[in-house]
Amino acid sequence: MIRKKLPVVHGVGSIRFLGHTGVADYAIEGDPTRLRLGVNRLRGSITIDPELALQAFQAGEGVLVLEGGEEVRLTMVGHSTGGGEVFVDVRF
To answer: Where do the structural domains in the chain lie, given as residue ranges?
Structure first.
């Protein structure tokens, strides 16, 4: 089965998670503006300071406000120690 490769949407947004509110670069596989309410998810990543990336991963969940003003929920699913990238599931 051949799967269509989703476009990657890059931007800078505002992120909130337990104990922190700030700016983060993001990359999301697929168009988050086309994501409907419910259990559907997109995959992506956020890039922030390595220390904050660890805190975000430990928090487990957060909220990202995209450049267009859309607010999406994040579930932190992966992080490499010492790195500034956190891999996330994105949903409304």
So the answer is: 8-91
CATH of domain 8-91: 2.40.10
Listed in sequence order, the residues at least 6 apart from 61 whose beta carbon sits closer than 8 Å to its beta carbon are 17, 73, 74, 75, 76
pLDDT along the chain (92 residues), means of 10: 80 96 94 68 94 95 93 94 94 82
Question: For residues 48 and 83, is the Cβ–Cβ distance under 8 A?
Answer: no
CB atoms within 10 A of CB 45: 21
Q: What is the pTM of this model?
A: 0.86
